[in-house]
Amino acid sequence: MKKIKFLIIMIILFSCNSEKKQVLEKKDAKEERPIKNKSSLNTNEEESIKGFTNFIANGFEIAVVQNKKKIVFGDLNQDGFQDFVAILVSSNTNIDDDDPEEVRIAIYEGSEDDRYIQKALSGNLTSASIYNENPTLKITSTILSVSHQSMRHDYEVKFRFEKKHNDYMLIGSEYNNYGNAVHDGAGNTSINFLTKTKIKKISKYDHEKEKLIELKPVVTKIEEDLVSITQINDLNIYKIIGSE
Question: Which residues, at least 6 apart from 80, have a Cβ–Cβ distance to it below 8 Å?
């Protein structure tokens, strides 16, 4: 009889200790989970779920050509955060049916919490110079390249963040003129704005020999200082890249 009572007491004590152990384990696990500040959590989550389009200024949207957004990503200023560049068009027109009134190149620098800040905005580049002809954006390392092609010419302009200016500056350009039907007058103008060197090549059609002859390249020095992307617009871009 005494043995039975002893066994019952041992079973009860074992059961209590087991329940106590389980409660402690659950309590310890709860305490190990980090406690987040509710107000800061809500703010961070609200900012982090925003897509890059949320940082586009009112009245503009990213240009869409052949069902593709004109946007590229990279670390242009080498600060470890992703940046993006987009061609923006005024959203007060139907870009599927009409030419937008404004077309601009916008550079957005990334920062913490997936936020973007508009760092640079070009002048107005109208549809005649950049939109309808399907411009191309490309980021290679720290260099932003913007290309455009029309029926009679094409060009490429390159920008890079320059710490000295704390801005994105035009550092190089390539302009190709196709000339006439037999390519008479066709040529290339290449400018390195860092070395202030312009090289111009022109081809001339020899009607007697019936072939295209490439004339000797002309190398000249330019005096202009580096130009910011903010200074580029539809009225001066061709003059800056040496097509005039």
Answer: none
- Here the tokens at position 173 are 């350009």
pLDDT digits (tens, 9 = 90+) for 174-228: 999 988 877 788 899 999 999 999 999 988 887 777 787 888 999 999 998 999 9
Q: CB-based contacts of 103: which residues, under 8 Å, 6+ apart? A: 63, 87, 88, 89, 90, 124, 125, 126, 127, 129, 130, 131
pLDDT, one tens digit per residue, over 89-135 is 887 766 666 677 889 999 999 988 778 999 999 999 875 566 666 78
233's CB contacts (< 8 A; 6+ apart) are 122, 123, 124, 125
Q: How far apart are CA 18 and CA 22, in angstroms?
A: 6
